[in-house]
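#help-structures

NK: newbie question. if I give both the sequence and a SMILES, will the prediction place the ligand too? trying with zinc ion
OV: yes, paste both and it writes out the complex. here, I ran yours:
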Amino acid sequence: MSGIPEKIIDFHVHLFPDRLFDAIWEAFLKQYNWHIIHRCYYRECIERLRRKGVSVIVYSNYAHRAGIAEELNRWNEKVLQEYEDLYCFAAYHPGDDHALDMARRLVENPKILGFKLQLLVQNFYPFDERLFGLYDLVMKKNKRILFHTGTGPVGNPYVGLEPFMKVLDRFPDLPATIAHLGAHEYAGFMELVDRHPQLYLDTAFCFLPAPYDGYNLGPGYLEKYKSRILYGSDYPNLITPWEAEIENLLKMNLSPEFYDRIFYDNAAALIRSLTAQGETGESGLTSG
Ligand SMILES: [Zn+2]
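OV: that's the protein plus ligand as C-alpha cells.
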C-alpha cells in the first residue's frame, strides 16, 4: 500500500482549552524533553486534520486533578456543537463531589462516546471502587472508557497490565479502548481481546520513526487482531511529523484489509454502534 489512505478516522486526538494546552506542552518538555511540533489550539487542530483527509475526529481530554472536570466538559459540549463529525471522550475525576451526576448528564449527548481515564497523569487505579459507578453507567448507556493504562512512555503504580486485569476480573464486559496498543506490554494487552469482546486498542504513538521505540511484535499480532485496532494519532501532541507514523505502518506491508479496517472501517462501525445511527446517519459515516 502506498500513500496516505484516502479515508481516515482518527480515534485518538486531544483537544483542550488553550490555557491547558500551553500547560501540557510545557509539562511534556519538562518531563520527557518532548518538543511538541504542532502547537495548535483546537480549531486549528481540527482544520489541519481535515485538510489531511481525516473525516471523523474522536478526541479526548482528562482532568489532571479533581475540581476541573465540570468546566472541561462544559467546554467539550460547546466544541462538539461547533463541528460535525467530531466526537469526544469526556473528562472524569473520581475525586469530584458530583462526578457521577455529571457523567449521567453527559452520556445523554450522542457525540460523547464515553470518558477518558489517564491513569499515568490522574494517579488512581483502574479498579478504584470510586470508578465502579462510572463503569456501570457506561455499560448501561452503551458508552466506552478510553484508558491510558500502559507503561509507556513511563510507568507508575497505577498503569500496566496487572492493575488493568483486575478491572476485567470484576467487569469482564467493560467496553474499553486501550490507548497505545497497551505499550510497552503489547502482547499481554492485545491478547486480552481474545477473552473480552468489548475491548479495542488504538495505535497512537506506537509507530514512530527511529530513534523512537515502539510496537515490536511484528505483523502477526497486528493481522490477528485487526478487527479490534483503531488508528489514532495523538494529534496535536506529536514529536514527529503526523505522516511519519502512517508511513511506518504502511511500510510494514500488511494486508489491504488490515489498513482498511484500522484507518476507517472499525472506527466507523464502532461509532455507528455507539450512536445508533443508520447506515447513512448525520455523520456521513459509510460502511465498507
Ligand atoms: Zn493521547
